[in-house]
Design a protein that fits this description.
The complex is a heterodimer. Chain A is mostly helical. Chain A is about 75% helix and about 5% strand. By secondary structure, chain B is mostly helical. Chain B has one domain. Chain B has two helices and no strands. In chain B, helix 1 runs antiparallel to helix 2. The longest helix of chain B is centred in the C-terminal third of the chain and has 21 residues. The radius of gyration of chain B is 15 Å and the shape is elongated. Chain B starts with 13 loop residues before the first helix and ends in a 7-residue tail after the last helix. The model of chain B has no long low-confidence stretch (mean pLDDT about 85). The chains are: A mainly alpha, B mainly alpha. The interface between A and B is large, with 40 and 36 residues.
Chain lengths: ~475, ~60
């Protein structure tokens, strides 16, 4: 299937980065809808969001407001960014930043953050895939390695067209599985009222969590939703989907249409409570969705759902590796190794880089504890959010300067990482003002520090540079 | 560019207000089909937010 993609809407050549890495910037509304949908609502999400709701209750539901408020942001910001990229032939976020500020340092900061934040994300897609493969009854590392080889080969040969085509199949399958689950399971468990009552009882017995938020969780809930929404489209894989669109209006239309996936995600999150109501005994919360499907569905349909999740992981993993490969090619290779690289040379380097990135993610999964990838992915969200000022502020004003943005990035990234490390790599940090304590998302706190530092340094830089001319 | 119609963009702030101020909706009642208010209120924001974005889109539909 993926190999057919090389021939689908065949370009004159695939040996150009615009073609391999951005599908020729020709994706219309529907292809973009499937591609960004498949790439943003990842296989890992399908496993992890219900797992979090299962473990902690209402707090885990923050994924829903997050994936609603992300779209007004996409609607206002991304079409402008697309115009800049299209007009100048930019492929990555770091290209855009270099174009505006002419600073290799800032370009490198944005590119490196993008690559480092994406690696653990790819690793987690492999975790999602491994969970689904295990649920299918296959054991050992062989199925994972096989899936990996398929992924690597089809991305290598077809570039972004491959995941775009697979996304159609995968999303249709996942929609069928989720609709069947939310339509059938509550009936088996005595209706939604019974599901919530059972969940409430389970949380009470457990002594933590609940189906409503505690007042102390309000700020955490809202700041996680806002911080995640601002970070979501700073990732190389989501930006790749944006840049590959045919027009600015394609993106605007998708900001209207993509919430259909959010509705699915919200319903999926409720599976966590259904897991509680079904009194599942699971070794790890990540097994809730597979265990629930095994309990309530006929085995052939459960198999279909797991296959959907496993195939589903291929799409984001492929787009992530392409996004990271584009960054490597444009902002490391072209910037430092071979500035005279030809268009065909760029595509060749990107293909190799995508293989290396995926091999790295596979090694992380096989040889390091999964918790390591989880921790890194959490930090990845914090890190990628710190690139927002450099990438987005320039769309609205030319006031900011490269040294200020670089300083803000450093303050946010290193300060945020330090805060997270003092909190045992939990995403929340308690701020104390006098005698009130506010617990909020560390990424958003770091972002506030980043913006403050950027503004202060920029005032300093501008007053220094202005003085001689006065 | 028609500045007057760009006023519709302010509609896009509504989802942020409606969803980020948690005390608005952290209740059990009124429940809908057994689903507590907290959940169906947030789920209801999905189509509402999409609709608001569609109205804002009307501002741009003739551009590229």
């Amino acid at each position: 299937m993926g190999f057919v993609a090389a021939r689908w809407r065949r370009p004159k050549t695939l040996a150009v980065l615009d073609e391999w890495g951005l599908g020729g910037r020709q994706f219309g509304t529907w292809i973009t809808w499937f591609l960004v949908g498949g790439d943003f609502y990842t296989a890992y999400t399908v496993i992890a969001v219900p797992a979090l709701v299962y473990s902690v209750g209402a707090y885990g539901f923050f994924a829903l407001p997050y994936t609603i408020i992300v779209y007004p942001f996409v609607f206002t910001v991304m079409p402008k960014l697309w115009h800049v990229a299209k007009e100048q032939g930019y492929v990555t976020a770091a290209d855009v930043v270099h174009g505006w500020y002419g600073s290799r340092g800032l370009e490198l900061a944005v590119a490196a953050t993008g690559v480092v934040a994406t690696m653990p994300y790819i690793a987690l897609q492999l975790v999602g895939m491994a969970t689904a493969i295990k649920a299918l009854g296959l054991i050992g590392e062989l199925p994972l390695v096989a899936a990996f080889v398929i992924l690597a080969l089809y991305t290598y040969s077809s570039g972004l067209r491959a995941p775009a085509l697979i996304a159609f199949v995968k999303d249709a399958m996942i929609y069928i599985a989720v609709i069947a689950a939310v339509a059938l399971i509550p009936g088996r468990l005595g209706g939604y009222g019974a599901v919530f009552a059972a969940a409430e009882e389970a949380f009470k017995a457990k002594g933590s969590g609940g189906v409503l938020l505690a007042p102390s969780q309000y700020a955490a809930y809202a700041s996680l939703a806002l911080g995640s929404a601002l970070a979501a489209f700073m990732y190389p894989h989501t930006l790749t989907g944006v840049f590959a669109s045919r027009s600015a209006n394609t993106i605007r239309k998708n900001a209207v249409l993509l919430p259909a996936y959010t509705l699915m995600l919200g319903l999926l999150a409720l599976l966590g409570y259904m897991g509680r109501a079904a009194h599942l005994k699971v070794a790890s919360a990540n097994d809730v969705v597979p265990a629930l499907f095994h309990t309530v569905f006929a085995s052939w349909f459960a198999g279909f759902a797991f296959a959907a999740i496993a195939i589903g992981a291929l799409v984001p993993a492929a787009v992530m590796s392409i996004g990271a490969a584009n960054l490597f090619t444009r902002n490391f290779w072209k910037a430092y190794v071979d500035p005279q690289v030809t268009a065909a040379g760029e595509a060749a380097v990107a293909k190799m880089a995508s293989l290396v990135v995926k091999a790295g993610a596979l090694l992380v999964i096989l040889y390091l504890p999964t918790q390591f990838a989880l921790d890194l992915q959490l930090l990845g969200g914090l890190w990628i959010l710190q690139t927002l000022p450099a990438l987005v502020f320039g769309l609205f004003t030319r006031w900011f300067t490269a040294p200020a943005l670089l300083a803000g990035w450093a303050v946010g990234l290193f300060g945020g990482t330090y805060l997270a490390s003092t909190d045992g790599l939990k995403p929340l940090h308690a701020l104390t003002f006098g005698d009130t304590t506010l617990t909020a998302y560390t990424g958003l706190i770091a972002f506030a520090a980043n913006v403050t530092a950027t503004v202060l340094v920029n005032l300093g830089v501008r007053s220094l540079t202005k003085r001689p001319s006065n | 560019m028609v500045p007057t119609t760009r006023h519709r963009l302010w509609l896009l702030l509504l989802p942020y207000i409606g969803l980020l101020w948690v005390p608005f909706y952290n209740f059990r009642d009124p429940a809908l089909f057994g689903i507590p208010f907290f959940y169906w209120y947030q789920l209801a924001w999905v189509p509402v937010s999409a609709l608001l974005t569609w109205v804002a889109y009307g501002t741009y539909s003739h551009e590229d």
